[in-house]
Amino acid sequence: MRKTNYFKGEQKRLEQKKRRGRRLSIIGFFQPLISFVYGLVIGGINRKSYIQMMQQEAADAQRRGLTRVIVQDNGPIHRCKEVQQLWKKWEQMGLYIFFLPKYCSEMNPIELEWQHLKKSELSGQIFDDELDLAYAVIDGVKARGDKGNYSTQRVKFNFNAPG
User: Fold this and answer.
1) What torsion, rounded to 10 degrees, do the Cα atoms 141, 147, 153, 155 define?
2) Alpha helices in 1-129 (DSSP H)
3) Helix or strand run (H / E) with residue 87
4) How far apart (Å, rounded) are the C-alpha atoms in residues 16 and 160?
5) What pLDDT digit, counting tens, does each position of 14-69 carry?
6) Is 13 helix (H, G, I), strand (E, B) or coil?
């Protein structure tokens, strides 16, 4: 993170670098007051990382003997053919998917969590690169978990996995 000193009465100026970094994407499962499981990816979330997260949640539900319901929007990854073929398997493991109505992402509690993360933990900061941003997001998620008294867990994606 870039730090700059300013003197009293001096105008503050933040310059945007010409080179823009790649996007940092986050995917997560949020249970208010209980837990927040998330993963970070440089670039966009793809079906492999989504499937890995869902497989992990299904395995955890099965191991604990619980029924788990994931609420999500109608993003293309959530409904691609490869994912649809896994729905029955996940249901047998105790994981069910509930789709929100189209254009109603505000009904998903995780959207408010993303907003708070951006506005409270990351606002007003400039990051030199994606790695600095990723560390700030990790620290921000942990800080939100500490404030909200819920656990946080970061999933590390295995990009060499088949599928």
Assistant:
1) -10
2) 47-64, 76-79, 81-84, 87-93, 109-116
3) helix 87-93
4) 35
5) 565 555 667 889 999 998 888 999 999 988 888 999 999 999 999 999 999 999 99
6) coil
Place of tokens 């500490």: 146
Residues in CB range of 83: below 8 A, 6 or more apart? 47, 50, 51, 54, 77
Radius of gyration of the chain (CA): 18
Q: Indicate if the pLDDT at residue 162 is higher than 60.
A: no
In Å, how far are 15, 55, 80 from 77, measured between CA atoms? 36, 14, 5
Q: What is the residue type of 159? A: F
Distance CA 146, CA 148 (A): 6
Q: Residue 85: inside a domain, yes or no?
A: yes
The CATH number covering residue 44 comes to 3.30.420.10
Does some domain include residue 163? no
Give the domain extent around 127: 24-155
Mean pLDDT for all residues in the chain? 86
Amino acid at 101: P
Computed from CA positions of residues 37, 41, 44, 48, in that sequence, does the dihedral angle turn out positive or negative? negative
How many domains are contained in the chain? 1
Residue 113 domain-assigned (yes or no): yes
Q: List the alpha helices (DSSP H) in 103-159.
A: 109-116, 130-148
